[in-house]
UniProtKB/TrEMBL annotation:
Limits of the Glycosyl transferase family domain: 191-345
PANTHER family: GLYCOSYLTRANSFERASE WBBK-RELATED
GO biological process: lipopolysaccharide biosynthetic process
A GO term, aspect molecular function: glycosyltransferase activity
Keyword Transferase: yes
UniProt-recorded name of the protein: Glycosyl transferase family 1 domain-containing protein
Keywords annotated in UniProt: Transferase
Amino acid sequence: MKIGVEAERANLPNPTGVERYAAELIKNFARLDSYNEYVLYFRTKPQQWFYDLPKNFSIKVIPFPKFWTQLRLSWEMIIHPVDVLFIPASALPLWHPKKSVVTFHDVAWRIYPQTFMPIMRRYLEWSSRFAVKSANQILAVSQVTKDDLIKFYQADPNKITVTHLGLDSTFQPKKYEEVQPVLDKYDLVYQKYVLFVGSIQPRKNIIRLVEGYQKIKQANHVEEKLVIAGGRGWLWEPILKKIKMVGLDGSTKYLDYVKQEDLPYLIAGAKLLTLTSLYEGFGLPPLEAMASGVPVVVSNVSSLPEVVGDAGRLVDPNSVDDIAAGLLEVLTNRNVQNEMIKKGLERSKQFTWEATARKTLEIFNSL
């Protein structure tokens, strides 16, 4: 069977969760499947690791200025058809094989439309509706995402499979001696900071997080810094302005996008990791923190309870007071920390990229 994979997502230089998902699946397909033939499609020059994949993987670079997935991949499917086409991020080509599989990571534009630019919101709405209707099978990265697809797009539940995201072995507990040399690059000290990892955009709820942190810092003399690590997303300007304003005293620090090779060390060195988003399709940073032996404080909405289970402290993302209370409890109670670390390490074992890839391959082979 010949399987085509839209691989441009996996090729981006500063990957976030969606891009890491695409890359990890390709790597695990290469380890697990020597029988099927894979064609990886790129719009730009592939990174070197793609050329090191096994012989049953081929590379096809097909540049195109705009609407690459919808138009250029469509033409490729017409002139060089494949048996199965896999799109790891919801935008299905206009012309595609009957056996097409699409992954949905969230439908944030439906739930928080005000956090998206109008033109992007219209594009996401159109492309998502088309993909839900046209794909043979849909993969959802969480039960919440599956439920949202059914609710907003009347998707057929029988053609949606939940395939959670996974972990790689770089996320594990690390000692001071391993971590501090990396933290020195960011002027941070082991166990002396609260960490947020994610793009700077409204639905990440960063302003309320900053306000909650400031509240406990002033009232309880918390010594840990708040560190915000992430690239700039939609409507980032007022959020970054707030971060820089409260950070004038040195209590809050913005790192911008952190290189992938540094992220496991940055997470392992934190006192706790927090993700108090208004909405997440999955929420990879809390999972990576749990695997690293770091307690997590996350929102009690969307997919985050599904990811952390009873291993994290859940808070109301709409309440600055509740965010503050959650941060304070974990930062100041050693017994709570120890229990969360223990539960987090155990729960994180349930999520692996190999398991995600195996489940995805089962879908391909069933078509």
